[in-house]
Amino acid sequence: MLMLRKYLQRIILIVIALLGVKTGIEGFISTLNMHSNDASVINWDERLSNLIAPVPFEYGLIGYISNADIPGAAFDEDDVFGEYILTQFAVAPLILVQGTDQEWNILNLDPVTYETWNQINANQFEVVGFGGGVYLVRKADK
Question: 3-class DSSP state for residue 32?
Fold first, then answer.
């Protein structure tokens, strides 16, 4: 009986070890199939660097809104925070502030949502630059 118990313990130990190796190999293979997001981050940085070129100051606050800030607009919850962080990184040392209370603002909106926002805010902002669903707007002179 004692021999059978030791034999079963060894078999269980070998099975656990093999499952661990299998899981490790599957994890390694899954990382090989992942695509790097470096190109999209660089593209985001370049787009926003060109977009904010007209901003007349290097340090300060700049407003930011995305589809998530527009009631009824479609947006991907997973992208909201990531795009905000990418935008902040791209415009540094400017500091993003949620909303459009600043003189200069970045709108990260799809075309339909931008049209909705533009109708709601008619004549309050002037579009200074745009590209790829990202708009730079400035509060209109009153």
Answer: helix
If asked whether residues 29 and 4 sit together in one domain, one would say: yes
pTM: 0.69
Which domain covers residue 101, as residue numbers?
A: 38-139
Residues 108 and 121 in one domain: yes
In three-state secondary structure terms, 53 is coil
Q: Which value, to the nearest 10 degrees, does the dihedral of the CA atoms of residues 50, 53, 55, 60 take?
A: 80
Cβ neighbours around 135 below 10 Å, total: 21
pLDDT digits (tens, 9 = 90+) for 51-103: 888 888 889 999 999 999 988 888 888 788 888 988 998 888 999 999 999 99
User: What is the rounded CA–CA span in Å between residue 73 and residue 122?
Assistant: 18
Residues 28, 58 within the same domain? no
Judgement on whether residues 100 and 135 belong to the same structural domain of the protein: yes
Cα–Cα nearest to 100, from 118, 112, 76? 118
Helices (H) and strands (E) in the chain, counts: 4, 5
Q: Give the orientation angle of helix 77-91 with respect to helix 38-51, to 10 degrees.
A: 60
Q: For residue 125, what pLDDT is reported? A: 93
